[in-house]
Design goal:
single chain, about 130 residues, 6-stranded antiparallel β-barrel, two-stranded antiparallel sheet, 8 strands, globular
């Protein structure tokens, strides 16, 4: 039985990056961002500080269209599923970030390559096999 796709925006990214040019991803990742989780999901952050790394899944809300192959920052041609371009069929991004702190419903992170006000779809801890 097929289910309808249901995706909820759980929060928003806040940082100094209103827009970006190709090649800015590394500079964006070096900056500090906050993720403001909507109040209705704040309790889902309970004990998240136990993890030093998180996977943040977000929506490329400013991306427009895509091609199946693209030129990467290194100049190599690759299929879009073999690179990190924001121009994707489903417009979903994921980045592993370092958690710097938690205050209420706000996470402070570094390593996030999303722009200011980017919608966040999910947050998952990075769990290593032990």
């Amino acid at each position: 039985m097929k289910k309808d796709l249901k995706i909820e925006i759980i929060g928003y990214v806040h940082n100094e990056w209103e827009n970006a040019e190709p090649g800015d991803a590394d500079r964006i990742k070096e900056s500090i961002s906050t993720i403001e989780v909507k109040e209705q999901f704040a309790d889902a952050l309970y004990r998240i500080e136990k993890y030093s790394e998180l996977n943040v899944i977000f929506y490329f809300d400013r991306s427009d269209g895509y091609e199946l192959r693209t030129v990467t920052r290194s100049g190599e041609v690759r299929g879009i599923f073999a690179c990190c371009t924001p121009r994707r069929p489903s417009m979903i991004g994921m980045t592993t970030v370092r958690l710097l702190g938690v205050e209420g419903n706000t996470l402070t992170v570094t390593g996030l390559d999303a722009l200011n006000n980017t919608p966040v779809l999910d947050i998952k801890p990075v769990v290593t096999n032990r």
